[in-house]
Structure formats: C-alpha cells, structure tokens
Amino acid sequence: MGCCCANPCRGSLKASEVIGAMQNKVIVLVTSLILIFGQGLSIAAPAYSVEFGQDATGDPNAVKVQGVISGFLYSERIVFTVAHFLDSMKSVEQWEKVGFVYEPGINSTIGKKKYKVKKVLIAPTYRPRIAKDQTRIDDFAILILEEDLPLKNTVKVATNAEIQSFLKNSSKVQMVGYGLQNPQQRINPRSEYRSPHRMVSYLVDKSQLESFYRLNTWHIPPNQTILDFGVPNSQTFGSQCDDDSGAGFFVEVDKTRYYLGTVGGLGWALQNCRGDGSQSFGVGGGMAGFTPANKFLDLIKTAENIVAEDKRIEFARAEEARLAAELKAKQEAEAKAKVEAEAKAKQEEEAKAKAEEEAKAKAEEEAKAKAEEEAKAKAEAEAKAMLEAAKKKSTITCVKGKLTKKVTAVKPKCPKGYKKK
Question: Average per-residue pLDDT in the chain?
Fold first, then answer.
C-alpha cells in the first residue's frame, strides 16, 4: 500500500529492517487474530455467501429495492433497508413518489410486479460518512408499502438479551442480498437477472471490532467510528459487495428469523467483488459492522402504526364499498321486483280484461245464438201452427136469399151466388 498522510512512511529505515519488522508484525497479528476470532473458525460452514457463495433464490425476506440495492421484508408492508441509499437521492418526498420493491427471493425482475413505496422513515440519528470516517452511524430506514407483500415466515427484531445469547453460543449469522457476486459483474452487471446470494458467518461484539481494527490499521483508514456489533467476512464465510446494502443480518431459530441489523453501516477490509486488487481482505478477512435494529423500535412502532391506520382506512373504505354495493344490490333487486310485480299485475289485469272481454263476447254470442234459436223456434212454431191451422177443416154458413148452405173444408168457400153468413 502507499503511504497514508496520517501515518507518513519512515524513509530512513533500511529495506531489510522494514521487511523484518513487517514479518514480525504479521506473525503477531495472525496469532492474535486466531485467538480473537477462533470462535468463528469453529463454525466455518460451506461458502453460503454473496461473493464466493450459493444461490438463495426463493428466500422469503430478501427483496430488491428500486431494482438496485437490497432490503429485508419484516412484515407484509414493512421493508428494512439502509438510509444512505435513500439519502443519496436527496429527496425522501421524491423517493416516495417513485420508490418500489420486488417480491422476495426472485432471480429476475423481468415482468415482475413492482410494489409501490408509500412512506419512507429514516432513523433520526442517521449520520452519513464524514470526511475519512467511512462509518455510517444508525444507517437504518423503513419502507412502507401501499399493499401487502405475502410474508411466509416469522420475523422478530432481536432483543439485547437475544443478541448476547447469539454471541455466547456463536450462533450462525446469515445475510441474503442482491449485491454483486463476482468481479465480472462490475463489467456486465445484468442486475435484472441477478438472484439473491447468502453468506453465513457469526457475530462479534464491539471489543472484537476494536481488536480487528487495531490488527488492520495498515489496511483501514484511521479514526473510524466503531459500531456495536460486527460480522466477519471471508472466502469461507462469504463477503458482502456493492448493492448488498440494505440486506439484513439475522439468526434463524426454530423457523423464526431474529433480525439483527442492516448491511451497509461499516465495511472494513472487504474485497468487494473487485478483481483488480484495488480492494482486498485484511488480516483475517474483512468485517461488516452494524447498529442493532432494536435501537430503532420507536421508529418501527411508528411504521407499524402507519400500516395499521392504512389498513383501518382501507377496511373502512372496503366496508363502506361493501355496504354501498349491498344497498345498491338491494335497491336494484327491489326495483327489479317492483318492475316484475307491476308487469305481473299488468299481465294479470290484461288477462282479466281479456277474459272478461272474451266472456262478454261469448255471452253476447250465446245470447245472440239463444235469441236466434228462440226466434227460429218461434218461427218454426208459428209455421207449424200455421201449418197445422192450415191443415184443420172448418165449416162456414153461406146464404142466398132465404136459402142457407153450410160448407166444410180446410179453406171453406161459399159457392157462387152465396155469401158467407
């Protein structure tokens, strides 16, 4: 490495003295590192990592934020991520207009739904990098979504007691992120086809972070702020790279993930997926530091209250819409029933009128037929009577002077010269 302005080179030393001093220092540093981080070596696992790692497609919590960095799905509408990415956009209001995340665990964003961010909360104590201090303090932010993202597991923010237990038991600390996975991706990122990758390491406390810092002062800029906890990075454990910022460190116990904190606050001696030698691991690898998320419980509670209020309003609107729909359906049913009843009544009235008209016509026809029948019968009777009367003989008396003569016939007629008496 070149000389640092804060630690000028000692040009008066002979080359042999420098080489000897460096060899002795490395021996001491490596020996010290084994003593300090020996507990981590005992849990060395296959390389589940971001760089040097295995695919974690399908992870239930790893989300891609804005198609760039990483995030951790804490609940259906709450995503934990880093403040420094949001801060880089200079306007939270603008981010709330255009921000989005994808569903967790996907290995391609092509054709995938974007879940809109409604609200952004940044830790009020967040402080970005200042001058040569590359540590971001309280680098924590919350994205509140407009709609639910299905959460398939249980997530809890780890308490201080639980974190101390994880330290004591050398529990496996995992991180799943969407960052770069190898140096080639710096040339051709193809982030839209990038799957999430996992690293598995362990937890160290602030004193161990300080020890790592002292062992790597030649590799780490001076006067760095040291955070509360750290997670060692290496080719064995895996190592975070650019765009893993926002992913979450967590410990999984009995299918529950205990969320520790966000990736991105502190990164020392990381190779960072660079193959040109511009960045490399320090003695014992690299180190990521974080502030425990339980420091931000008030902010998380605020987010949960916002979500609860959003859901209450949505439920009220849905209920109002449901009641309005039911009322509309009832009114339409009643209107339909009324129309049908009126139509039925009209049909019945028309049927009744028709029946009455038909009955009247029939009655008139029957009366006419009866009258005609009676007239016919009367005519026939009269004709018959006339016929019978015509067929009956009668006797008349005819006179002529003093002479009298009776004539009997059907139609009696006095003889010539006689007159009917």
Answer: 84
